[in-house]
Amino acid sequence: MVVATKSATIIGLSVYEINIETDTVNSIPQIAIIGLPDTAISEAKERLRLAIKNSGYSFPQTKVVINLAPADLKKEGSSYDLAMAVAILAKEGIIEEPESNTAFIGELSLDGSLRPVNGILPIVSGLYELGFKKVILPEENLKEASFIDNIETLGADNLSQVVNYLNGKSDLKVLKQKIEDFIDKNENFPVDFSNIKGQSVAKKALEIAAAGAHNVLMSGSPGSGKTMLSRAFMSILPPLNKQEAIELTKIYSIAGLLDRSKPLVTSRPFRSPHHSASSVGIIGGGSNPKPGEITLAHRGVLFLDEMVEFPRQTLEVLRQPLEDNIVTISRAQISIQYPANFILIGAMNPCPCGYLGDSKKQCTCSEYQINKYRSRLSGPLLDRIDIQLEVLRLNDDELLNNNQTAETSETIRKRVIEARKIQEERYKNDNILTNSELTPKLIKKYCKIDDSSKQFLKNAINKFNLSARAYDRILKISRTIADLEKAENITVSHIAAALQLRSYNK
Fold first, then answer.
1. Contacts for 160-168 with beta carbons within 8 Å, 24 or more apart?
2. What letter does residue 270 receive in the DSSP assignment?
3. What domain range includes position 77?
4. For the chain, which terminal residue's Cβ has fewer other Cβ atoms within 10 angstroms, N or C?
5. Residue 458 CA to chain centroid, in angstroms?
6. DSSP states of 39-104
7. What is the CA radius of gyration of the chain?
8. Shared domain check, 169 and 206
9. Phi/psi at 179 (nearest 5 deg)?
């Protein structure tokens, strides 16, 4: 009789049920694992044999055939070890065949102990959606799994504990935790806006960017404060909500970047890849496509310092994710979608020498060099960056005035949170969170303007040769400025302020 146990595999962020069918054949003792297993699964043969033996149980003295169904779905990793061991022990009569609504996840050591695996949070969440009631997994993964409601998660240290539990002789460890208890609403940030002298225009632009989750490009001479402003930007973003924390934890769990001692991502990510990063590193990929920097920056910030130094091919792969907030990685046998709803902050010098338009130093670049340098950012990419501003060098008074008092990040953050709450309430039925996510259809619904505003915008389109995409983005920024002022309707002043935030001239 065939014995079956349940496990799961994860492809991208999608979870698929794996049915592990086990039977024995009167033949030379050996193990055959079929169903498109990778090398890690094929090597499980000896792990299974020794883990069962060293746990004090007998291993079948016949040929054991294990089928991982569905057979046309490629299986990778060592997370099926526990499910296969339980199936073998059930076939031997050491335990009863487990219920079909119970799944087993975990890697076995040779001594029978259970090792943790990556991707537990999305797997457990996916199993709940597939109708499973119970998951047995390594105890080291229990903290991570404990945030999923409505499914029983049980932690075990070794195979013997699992066997005793299934035979009703002992219980396994149970843990349930609330996400809200882990999210720190009063985070400590290394850079505060009050530490940055001057730059009132740039600070206001970043406040608008934080309120509506808009992309930003800052151009300015070396030492003007672009990098410091970008790092301080994190201090004015609102704290993660429950949904965002789960989304991020799933991503970092799949990528193997989750700290097991802190199994929940509780703060927004700030990813700052070096300009030597490849397009695969930015977008994600591999034979089993893993998340790239843009997905690891989901619900946070992707900071590209010295943006024009990135290879043009690397920058161009950002175009589709900036528009759609998702990234699709296609390979010969598989196509995977990852979320990529991030705020892009780019920083660059205005020219190769860095001093074009500087008040202190004269630029030594030719017009040809300047045009070539700036052309590394294509028009279509610039069109997708909502806010484009020049960050000017501080004058002597601003630089030397130590008594100058500036707004703290906490004060600005409160205004940002209030604006985000307005957007959350407005879009509660539209499946979006911020103004930057507005589609053309939703722009028509929520960004209505009067006749005088239409005429003003029409003149701006003709004067600055704005594209249809730039027109939409100006309306989105205007909507955010109105939200910060708690204004119900967009006015001419909001549109004028939005146009001033696109001062970068290619």
1. 160/55, 160/56, 160/112, 162/82, 162/86, 162/104, 162/136, 163/55, 163/57, 163/89, 163/94, 163/95, 165/136, 166/86, 166/95, 166/96, 166/98, 167/95, 167/96
2. E
3. 3-177
4. N
5. 38
6. HHHHTHHHHHHHHHHHTT-PPPSSEEEEEEESTTS-B-SSTTHHHHHHHHHHHTTSSPPPPTTEEE
7. 28
8. no
9. -60, -40
d(CA 20, CA 33): 10
CA quadruple 415, 419, 422, 425: dihedral, nearest 10? -110
Residue 358's H or E segment, with its range, is none
pLDDT band with cut points at 50, 70 and 90 for residue 461? confident
How many CB atoms sit inside 10 A of residue 210's CB? 28
| 315: nearest Cα among 378, 226, 386 | 378
Q: Across-strand partners of 304? A: 346
- Residues 229/199, Cβ–Cβ less than 8 Å: yes
Q: What is the pLDDT of residues 107-146, one digit of tens each?
A: 999 999 999 999 999 999 999 999 999 999 999 999 999 9
Q: Are residues 123 and 22 in the same domain?
A: yes
Token pair 């003003």 is at which residue?
A: 456
Domain with residue 375: its CATH number is: 3.40.50.300
Please report whether residue 185 resides in a domain. no
pLDDT at 181: 77
Q: Give the Cα separation of 295 and 318 in Å (integer).
A: 11
User: CATH code at 94?
Assistant: 3.30.230.10
CA–CA separation, 163 and 86 (whole Å): 8
pTM of the full structure: 0.88
Query: Tell me: the pLDDT tens digits for 371-416?
Result: 999 889 998 999 899 999 998 888 767 676 766 677 899 999 999 9
Overall number of domains in the chain: 2
Nearest-angstrom CA–CA distance, 473 and 467: 10
Domain presence at residue 330? yes
Q: Flag whether pLDDT at 156 surpasses 50.
A: yes
481 touches 210 (CB < 8 A): no
Residue of 25, 20, 53 whose CA lies nearest to 37? 20
Instruction: List the one residue out of 503, 504, 497, 505 whose CA is nearest residue 212.
Output: 497
What is the reported pLDDT for 125? Answer: 94
Residue type, 419: A
Q: Are residues 231 and 106 in the same domain?
A: no
Q: Are residues 391 and 463 in the same domain?
A: yes
**DSSP 8-state secondary structure symbol assigned to residue 392:** P
Q: Which amino acid is at 108?
A: L
User: Omega before 70 cis (within 30°)?
Assistant: yes
* Tokens at 133, concatenated: 């009631």
Query: How confident is the model over 471-496, as pLDDT tens digits?
Result: 889 999 999 999 999 999 999 999 99
**How far from each other are the two terminal CA atoms of the chain, in whole angstroms?**
72
Least Cα distance to 483 among 469, 497, 500 occurs for 497
Report helix, strand or coil for 143: helix
